[in-house]
Design a protein that fits this description.
homodimer, 161 residues, mainly alpha, Multidrug-efflux Transporter Regulator, Chain: A, Domain 2, 2 domains, elongated, disordered N terminus, DNA-binding
DNA sequence: CCTTGCTCCTGTAGTCGCTACAGGATGCAA
DNA sequence: TTGCATCCTGTAGCGACTACAGGAGCAAGG
């Protein structure tokens, strides 16, 4: 018996788990409170003792968070990831819905990017009487701003910013 | 007395102001509480009475929010927009910093988009033994996922999604 | 044995920008 | 007068954490 079954070589403290996964200690405790991560057994002194299973789950959560999935989506994904967790199709649906929202966000941000960069470029062109940024914010209707700004020919300064 | 000086034709209730600017009533009151919008005078019965100045300020705030500026940035912009509010350069700096963060977000989201769309496409290709999405989430290191996924040749399914 | 210093514990409150009530008062028309 | 829309204040909730306060556990050095 080189290894007694109960002597688990992979016992991890919360600090080690944090270092191993890159998830803050407070966040790990938060995940336990909202039941994202199962509550681990405790040591004699009341400290949490994690194992390789917890580590895998937390790494999964972290990767999904990095990809922008919500904690609710991840909860569902974790259920589907368990052996016997039904179909790949459901997982794909969640991922596809998320991909859709990522694409929406990109589209919105690119509209903002266009408005901001063109307006700032006008500033750089240096109309001395008024500030192009403030002018844009003061115009009565944002949709008209988009139209007006988008129809303007790009100036030299556009490429610099 | 067709028009007594004090009978201001532009007095607006909070509901009208909401309709005119597209900002929810609760949000207007919230802006007052956090001192984004000056507290207006009140009617005999305690109701808020706004004027064209409030309307302009609130429209400014709304446009800036639509462009993704934080309320703190907008507070600063409002200070700079007031007559004698120093220089256009400061306004441009705030806008440029914001533009930078918008571009960072776009870059991040486009990385996510690439990972998600390629992984989902692998799923659609139909490896029957395991789910490509779950596999990706379970791999130990997200950075390696990015590398692995990005170096994969796009399959036919990539173009469909 | 005692101190030092690190890690850990619980619990609460703060972040951002709202949103959603509860429980009441006001104001106007039929 | 009744009914209804609108308004008021105040508080709590959202998502996903983050930042304390105030204490306890634990190993090493003196």
């Amino acid at each position: 018996m080189a290894a007694v079954p109960d002597a688990r070589s992979e016992d991890i403290s919360i600090g080690e788990l944090s270092r191993l996964t890159g998830v803050h200690v407070e966040t790990i405790r938060y995940y336990e409170k909202i039941e994202m991560l199962p509550a681990p057994p405790r040591s004699h002194g009341g400290r949490r003792i994690y194992d390789a299973g917890h580590r895998r789950t937390l790494a999964f959560i972290r990767h999904a968070r990095e990809l922008g999935f919500t904690l609710d989506e991840i909860r569902t994904l974790l259920g589907l990831a368990r052996p016997g967790g039904t179909s790949c199709a459901q997982v794909r649906d969640i991922a596809a819905a998320h991909l859709g929202s990522v694409r929406d966000k990109i589209a919105n941000l690119m509209r903002l990017e266009a408005i901001l960069s063109r307006t700032i470029a006008q500033c750089a062109d240096g109309a001395p009487t008024s500030c192009a940024v403030l002018d844009m914010l003061e115009t009565p209707d944002a949709a008209s701003v988009v139209r007006r700004v988008m129809s303007k020919k790009p100036s030299r300064a556009d490429r610099k910013i």
